[in-house]
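agent: user wants the structure for GDSL-like lipase/acylhydrolase family protein from Xanthomarina spongicola. delegating to structure tool.
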Amino acid sequence: MKTKYIWLLAVLLSFTACNNDDDSSSSMDETLPALTAGDADFSNYVAVGASFTAGFSDNALFIATQENSFPNILSMKFDMLGGSSFSQPLMSDNVGGLLFNGMQLPDGSFGPRLYFNGSGPAVLPGMSSTEAYSVLGGTFNNVGVPGAKSFHLGVEGYGFVNPYFGRMASNPMASMIGDAVGQSPTFFTLSEIGGNDVLSYATSGGTGVDQTGNYNPATYGNNDITDPNVFAGAFTASVDALVLNGAKGVVANVPYITSLPHFTTVPYNPIPLDAGTAAVVNNAYAPYNGGIVQAFAYLVGVGAMTQEDADAEIAQRTIMFEASETNAVVIMDEDLTDLTGINPQLVSMRQATADDLFVLPASNFIGTEAVPGNPLTVNGVAIPLADKWVLTPEEQQAIKTATDAYNATIESVATANGLALVDFKSILIQASTTGFSSGNYILNTQLVTGGLVSLDGIHLTSRGYAVMANEMMRAIDDTYGSNFEASGNFVDCGDYPTNYSPTLQ
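agent: tool returned. relaying tokens verbatim.
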């Protein structure tokens, strides 16, 4: 059986965001004021952050997107006000990914970038040529490290566990903040700190642990949510170190990452069934449906549950397929009442609803057959999808709660230190609903066609990073009295691409 997906267009009218060309633009005869810095000193700019700061895009880091990173775009504007040269730890080419002693990791991590092949994202053929263990030496103005979480910023020797930092660290025992502060910046950006503290939990389908209440990050797993107090301590310490010698800067809050296309592209109901197949599948589920009715009757009878609650969960857990193109998949849900003590066959499964979010890789798994040729082994139909493929509402709420706590800290620390603050949370909300206007373009979060988010569904396109640079300059204007916008020095996001050809090497 094949699963029908409506998540990518086979033929695109455009690879770009909508262009709102308007011939009635304001007259070019208007004289714009000269660019001024206001109260800010841009003579030595250092950027600290994670993958967005690095310029990560299309599931990889490569030269073209590093050159289009928002810090590099900002540095060219700062240069007009006396800024110094801006150095970045460039990769070896535009293939992306890393080699480890000449070998590509077998699990595909650190692999080549994605490109659009006409029907969807595909992995660039070939092998990466950037050696992870080839240390560049020196220091770099762009201290953007993909994968870095808040509590990693001050960890000495972090390069031993994160090769992106290892190849750029000033010495083996350096920390990200140490390398940044050691350059005596006069201006800094501290962006997307907190994003990775919930991202791996989200991309793993909530398989990690919400560590709220655990103040020891040394005990965390890779996919866990960082405790808000741990985040607050790490973020505050990083800002304190950066402003110690009078540096000014701009920070950004954390968006609701579940609005990104990595989580909104795969539908919850992509299963097409004819009447005959639906009847066969329903017959297979009949014992389960009958078993949960009996189990909840027992729980009500012993006073462990009210009849109202039992009826609600019976309705939630009853699995029924129809002759339709849009049947919901079956998923495991650990938040359901555990009935296996009553009957081991009554595992915690249900059909998905529109409130569930599926990770982008699920598009290649839903509808496959665990046993080829056997329609009763179809994943998502006869076999429920494991936790790693879906974010349930409870898991989404854990992400939101942590994000809100992180953002409260970011706003408080920014206010206390007089820093500019960019509201990326609101920007992403707008982009994922009505679309976000930038110059002559309206960008949204649709995969491939939206213009804002790259092919991995998480990181921005180069055009998205240009928008990010403009919003940072807007915040700098508002806080420090510069005039990047009024002097006509915002960048035209249309000058930056939304995707790259596979021939770009």
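agent: one observation worth passing along. The longest strand covers residues 45-49.
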